[in-house]
Prior knowledge:
It is built from 10 helices and 10 strands.
Amino acid sequence: MTPTPTPLVTFADVALGYGDFTVLRDIDLQVMPGQVVAMMGGSGSGKTTLLRAVTGQLPARAGTITVFGRDMATLRGEALRETRQRMGVLFQGGALFTDLDVFENVAFPLREHTCISEQQILERVLDKLEAVGLRHAAHLRIAEISGGMARRVALARAIVLEPELILYDEPFAGLDPISLGITAQLIRGMTDKLGCASILITHDVAESFAIVDQVYLIGQGRLMAHGTPAQLSAAQDDYLQQFLQGKPDGPIGFHYPLTPAFERWLAARRGAA
Ligand SMILES: Nc1ncnc2c1ncn2[C@@H]1O[C@H](COP(=O)(O)OP(=O)(O)O)[C@@H](O)[C@H]1O
Ligand SMILES: [Mg+2]
């Protein structure tokens, strides 16, 4: 009998927010080893907020976030740093250092976090560039590569420390259909090759449904749906179907929620007028 694998990430009844604005509440989710999990939702629904919670940048205001078996609320200093080093993050926009060439961009985390030799750095970086199809672009300056290539360089940089968990924030944004397909396949391929897990933050339904194992859909401040792509596609739910089909009319709200912070701001403006 094989033992049940332990989740890499668990959210139990988690609430997240900023100031007096609770962005998400009652969030339960799990990421298992080997899985690619999509966190989906409209713009402003709290996807990047979820990612910040996984990396420990944003503490939970309720509930428990467990990553690699550790309760994130209890981690400080060195322990937090060690936990973060086991994650690779591809930030929204995937900013590269424009004054460094492709090679040095990917080598950066190795220079920051390891003391391996120049020779080992060279081989490791070329290996990761090979994986994203850019070995022969190692010498190019960032200004000399396309947007799709830049995304792949950022991907190589996110995996160069061989993380157990990779987080991608909107990796498809602004890509043409071909680069988009290549990026999606790379995310799946990388996860399988490194034997890690990936969290894919996106609103791109078609591309992510083709490569992920599980989908969590957030909206209206909570978890709206969860399941495999096939389960969600088959579900009869107005909110879910509106999101999946990108219809403008439906239960998905357009208005940013009213908060006490806004009311205070407005009262002050009116007072000043
Ligand atoms: N640092 C912050 N301070 C205050 N509010 C924030 C901050 N970051 C995000 N928000 C608010 O939280 C909500 C969710 O934001 P975000 O997680 O970035 O959404 P998404 O990534 O899904 O587009 C938005 O309404 C946004 O205005
Ligand atoms: Mg975002």
